[in-house]
Design brief:
The chain crosses the membrane at residues 51-72. Residues 1-48 are annotated as: Disordered. Belongs to the RAMP4 family. This protein has 81 residues and is mainly alpha-helical. It has a domain at 49-73. Helices cover 43% and strands 0% of the residues. The chain has helices at 7-18, 50-72. The termini are far apart.
């Protein structure tokens, strides 16, 4: 059973229905094309600095190498020291 909507509800629906095409856009965004990347207007900076990325690579690879050496190299020596 469908009921008739009130005039207030119809006005609100009309207001927000007109806003459907504008959702997700900012004031500074151009409507030329959504497929073009925004990197042409401003460059993206990475979330991690190159020094930190290098440190993490050395840390992870170094830890893996140490574990491999410990597993195969020091297998015969189990003094506990």
């Amino acid at each position: 059973m469908a009921t008739a909507s009130s005039p207030v509800m119809r006005a609100r629906n009309a207001k927000y229905q007109a806003n459907v095409t504008k959702r997700g856009h900012t004031k500074g965004a151009s409507d030329k094309s959504h497929s073009s990347s925004s990197s042409t207007t401003k460059s993206k900076s990475s979330a991690v600095s190159p020094a930190l990325a290098g440190f993490l690579v050395v840390l992870l690879c170094g830890g893996a190498i140490v574990e491999i050496l410990r597993l195969f190299g020091a297998g015969a020596q189990t003094d506990g020291f």
